[in-house]
TrEMBL record:
This is Porphobilinogen deaminase. The modification S-(dipyrrolylmethanemethyl)cysteine is found at C242. Tetrapolymerization of the monopyrrole PBG into the hydroxymethylbilane pre-uroporphyrinogen in several discrete steps. It comes from the Bacteria. It comes from Candidatus Regiella insecticola LSR1. One of its GO terms (molecular function) is hydroxymethylbilane synthase activity. Signal peptide: none annotated. Its EC number is 2.5.1.61. The porphobilinogen subunits are added to the dipyrromethane group.
C-alpha cells in the first residue's frame, strides 16, 4: 500500500488548489511513503462566468469534469467544496470522506461599510448564491442584489473597482486564501443561514477502490460528517439544487444535533423555516424529518413553482 500513487482531480482556482493541497498534505502526513499528485482540470463552471449558475445547470458544473476523470481512471480522487457537490452521484462514485469543517458562516465584505444594515438605499450587493440573495432581499428590501460570479480574487476586484458596495463570500474561503482581513463582519446564522456543507471539504472516489478508501479513512472527521449528513439529507429529500434557495445548517451540542433550514422563493417573499433536534447518530433521519416538515408547511409548492418557471 505504501507504493500507491494518489492522483487528485481538482479545479484550478486558487481556493480549489488550496483545498487539494490540504488533502495532499493530510494524506502525506498519515502515509509518508505515499506519492500524491495533483491533476488540475478546468470545469464548465469555471469557463461560463457571465451567466447565473441557476440558469446553466447549477454548481454541479464545478464537479462534472472531475467526476469524468475518476470514471476514466485519469484520477483516483476528486476534492470538492461540499456546498458545490450535487445531491446525486454518477454510478460507481460517491463521497467517502468529509474533512474537518472550517468556518461555515457567510462574510460581509465592503470597502466603506461594516454591516448590511449600514448600506444606504439603492446600494448594490453582489453574490452568486440564491440562498444569500433571498435572505438579503427579505431583510433589506431597499438594497439591490446582483449576481456575482468568478473566483474569490475576481469578486474582490469587482468590489474594489466600485461595481458593488458590498459582496457576500464564505468566511472559510477567505481564511484559506489568507484574505480574512477583507472581512468586515462574520454573519451569524440568524443573519444568513449557511448552505449545506459550507466550509467543509469532501473527497469523492470510485466506490470499489478499497485501497484508496483505506488510505483516505484517517482524513474523515466524524463530527463534521454528522453535521454534513443532516444538511445534505434535507437537501436530498427536497431535491434541492442551485435553482432553489435552500439553507441547511447543523450544529453539534454534545451528543445532540440541531438542524435549522429554510426554503424560499428567490425574492424572499415566501420563506418557510424550521428546525429539529435529535441524537447526532441519527443525523440523516433528522435531515429527512425536517425536510418532511418543511414540505408539509408548503415547501413543495415553492419548489414546484420555481422548477416550472421558464428560463429567463
Amino acid at each position: 500500500m505504501s507504493e500507491k500513487v494518489i492522483r487528485i482531480a481538482t479545479r484550478q482556482s486558487p481556493l480549489a488548489l488550496w483545498q487539494a493541497d490540504y488533502v495532499r498534505k493530510s494524506l502525506e502526513s498519515h502515509h509518508p511513503d505515499l506519492q500524491v499528485k495533483l491533476v488540475p482540470i478546468t470545469t464548465r463552471g469555471d469557463t461560463l462566468l457571465h451567466t447565473p449558475l441557476a440558469k446553466i445547470g447549477g454548481k454541479g458544473l464545478f464537479v462534472k469534469e472531475l467526476e469524468q476523470a475518476l470514471l476514466e481512471n485519469c484520477a483516483d480522487i476528486a476534492v470538492h467544496s461540499i456546498k458545490d457537490v450535487p445531491i446525486h452521484f454518477p454510478a460507481g462514485l460517491g463521497l467517502v470522506v468529509i474533512c474537518q469543517r472550517g468556518d461555515p458562516h457567510d462574510a460581509f465584505v465592503s470597502k466603506n461599510y461594516k454591516h448590511l444594515k449600514q448600506l444606504p438605499p439603492g446600494s448594490i450587493v453582489g453574490t452568486s448564491s440564491l440562498r444569500r440573495q433571498c435572505q438579503i432581499r427579505k431583510k433589506y428590501p431597499h438594497l439591490i442584489v446582483r449576481d456575482l460570479r468568478g473566483n474569490v480574487g475576481t469578486r474582490l476586484n469587482k468590489l474594489d473597482q466600485g461595481a458593488y458596495q458590498a459582496i457576500i463570500l464564505a468566511v472559510a474561503g477567505l481564511q484559506r486564501l489568507d484574505l480574512q482581513s477583507r472581512i468586515q463582519h462574520v454573519m451569524s446564522p440568524e443573519e444568513s443561514l449557511p448552505a449545506a456543507g459550507q466550509g467543509a471539504i469532501g473527497i469523492e472516489c470510485r466506490l470499489e477502490d478499497d485501497v484508496t478508501r483505506q488510505l483516505l479513512a484517517p482524513l474523515n472527521h466524524f463530527p463534521t460528517e454528522r453535521r454534513i449528513c443532516a444538511e445534505r439529507a434535507l437537501n436530498i429529500r427536497l431535491e434541492g439544487g442551485c435553482q432553489v434557495p435552500i439553507g441547511s445548517y447543523a450544529e453539534l451540542e454534545g451528543d445532540n444535533l440541531r438542524l435549522r433550514a429554510f426554503v424560499s422563493t428567490p425574492d424572499g417573499s415566501q420563506m418557510i423555516y424550521g428546525e429539529r433536534c435529535g441524537l447526532a447518530i441519527q443525523a440523516e433521519k433528522i435531515g429527512l424529518d425536517l425536510a418532511t416538515e418543511l414540505i408539509a408547511e408548503g415547501a413543495d409548492k415553492i419548489l414546484s413553482a420555481i422548477y416550472q418557471e421558464p428560463p429567463r
